[in-house]
Amino acid sequence: MAGMLSVGITGLNAAQAGLTTTSHNIANASTPGYSRQSIIQGTQQGLYSGSGFLGQGTRIENVRRSYDQYLENQVLSADTKRAALQVYENNISQIDNLLADPTVGFSPALQTFFEGVQEVAANPSSVPARQSMISSAQAMVARFQYLDARLSEMRDGTEANISSTVETINAYANEIGELNQRIVIAQAAGAGMPANDLLDTRNNLVRELNQLIRVTTVEESDATVSVFIGSGQPLVVNTQVTQLTATPSNEDPTRLAIGLQMPTGASIEMPESLLSGGELGGLLEFRRDALDTAQNKMGLLAVGITEAFNAQHRLGQDLDGNLGTDFFAQLSPSIKPVAGATATPTVAFGDIGKLTGGTYTLTYTNATGAYSLIDRATGTAVNAADVGLTITPPGATVTGESFLIEPTRFAAQDIRVAIGDTRLVAAAGPVRSVERAGNLGSGSIDAVTVTDATGFASGNPHIPNYTLTFNSGSNAYDVFDNTNTLIGSVAYNPATQSAGTTVTLPAPLGGINLTLSGVPTNGDSFSLQSNTSGVADNTNAVALGALQTTKLMLAAGGNPTANFQSTYSNLVSEIGNKANEIKVNKTAQESLYAQANATRESLSGVNLDEEAANLIRYQQAYQASAKVMSIAGSLFEEILSIAR
């Protein structure tokens, strides 16, 4: 009877364990990260009797957690990409909405500015028109600065989010390290049996950490888990935790760089390319690929307008008869020394059509000014002139010293209108042509265009008087200076060029182009002189207005391909396309995550219908075992009654 009673007790204990485990599953059906548990039963070792081995009941071998590392890794991989894309989309949509807004975007301000220029071209002597041009320029500058300020606010927010995310990563890493220790202690006390609930808690922390930064995990033989980031940099090993740091970058102190803190307290900066996935990876990628692009290319547009408009304005003449000065304040590339470098080069803008909005690292290769220039986006060496820059190193340099060059990064912030006096608007051309009375032919000079004012006097008169006289024998205009000395000639054949042709005068007038037309007779002449009464002249204002539609930017194959408006439109399109790409990828990644999570939940999740069935099954087993014990007790009573 004792054997039957003990067998019943083992069955009763097994059923009770099943009921307890099932109840635990039901209670945690909605607990995030919980893995369904089930009991694993085995038979007790049989007892030998003369007629064979008799069973001794059952035993609980283990409480098993329904968990698969492969499925878990699939969920982690999908989730970290989803989190990165979500953060990227949230941020880039702000830039997209800002730049594409038809009211606060840049396009209306640019259009209004050139409308002001066209108004001066139509009324060059009008002071209100000149004031309108200056005011519209100031409004355009204010729009540049507003957009840059909004982008800078986003940058500040991004930097703050990077810092707080790193702090959260460190907190999760510390908790995982502590749980590693608790799991080791718990399983040692439990004869090596898995501490299921602690393992679930740790896995849940790993999932939350993975949403912040892509991690890989390795389960060690002592049940601890090692967590790695990047290309294998350890974050948690056993109970040892390495802290991440977010400190000013060595190359650019205005942006945070992620590093690993060493036991000595020093921090080793990690390349951003290694920190992919999760919210941190999304923030870094957004900052690098979208935010930097937006600010650099807004700066590119500011540089293009400033350089082109100033260059043309300097070729004009103001109301006082002086050569034009810079309409906008001069801009210059940003140069930042790396690691305390001292031999700062002089960097200026060259051909604005070749500017790309990129950033570069200059490194000296010897002590006499030789250097390499690396495009940070591609990692390839470039020539300064090919990217629209002129670089002049100092006479003595230090081999290995580096500088970060951001040609257009702060241009939208720094652009300013340089003049406030309406008289300083250089609407007129500094040189004019006058037809001599008595010319017999129909020859004419239709336009005088100054392309280079080098050698001109700043005040009027800018040049001495010159005379152009047609020579029918040579089919050319002979050019004489004010002493009637021949300085050269320009070919002109009335038979083939009477419809109009543009010629460049010989030195020292090489910066002046004339548009010739008609059929002059021999001896017909024209005077070329300073524009002493150019108050109503609009020659340069027309040239300034023409800059609106002239392709000056984004050279391809050596030729500019975009005007100012299309340059801005390209930026809006680039950001918009990227935002749409991220949105599509995020939607796809959410679907992949949902599929991976559903597959994992099919194994690890709690099915309440199944657990309800288990409750009934274990209840029946419990009742049956209790009946066995009841019968054993009755039989024992029968034996005792025989003895009485």
Task: Please give a handful of descriptors for the protein shown.
4-stranded antiparallel beta sheet, 5-stranded antiparallel beta sheet, 644 residues, alpha+beta, rod-shaped, 44% helix
What's this, in brief?
By secondary structure, the chain is of the alpha+beta class. The chain has helices at 2-27, 69-100, 107-122, 127-189, 196-212, 278-313, 411-414, 494-497, 539-546, 564-604, 608-643, and strands at residues 37-43, 47-49, 52-54, 58-65, 215-219, 225-229, 233-237, 240-241, 244-248, 256-261, 267-269, 334-338, 346-349, 360-364, 371-375, 389-392, 402-406, 431-435, 444-450, 466-471, 476-480, 486-491, 501-504, 512-517, 525-530.
**How many helices does DSSP assign?**
11
In total, how many beta strands? 25
Largest sheet: 5 strands, antiparallel
Helix proportion: 40-55%
Distance between the termini: 18 Å
Shape: rod-shaped
Can you give a write-up of this model?
With 644 residues, the chain is of the alpha+beta class. It is built from 11 helices and 25 strands. A 5-stranded antiparallel β-sheet has the order 18-25-20-21-22, with no helix packed on it. The longest helix is centred in the first third of the chain and has 63 residues, at 127-189. It is rod-shaped.
Topology record:
Elements lengths: L1 H26 L9 E7 L3 E3 L2 E3 L3 E8 L3 H32 L6 H16 L4 H63 L6 H17 L2 E5 L5 E5 L3 E5 L2 E2 L2 E5 L7 E6 L5 E3 L8 H36 L20 E5 L7 E4 L10 E5 L6 E5 L13 E4 L9 E5 L4 H4 L16 E5 L8 E7 L15 E6 L4 E5 L5 E6 L2 H4 L3 E4 L7 E6 L7 E6 L8 H8 L17 H41 L3 H36 L1
Antiparallel strand pairs: 1-4, 2-3, 5-6, 6-7, 7-8, 9-10, 10-11, 12-17, 13-16, 14-15, 14-17, 18-25, 19-24, 20-21, 20-25, 21-22, 23-24
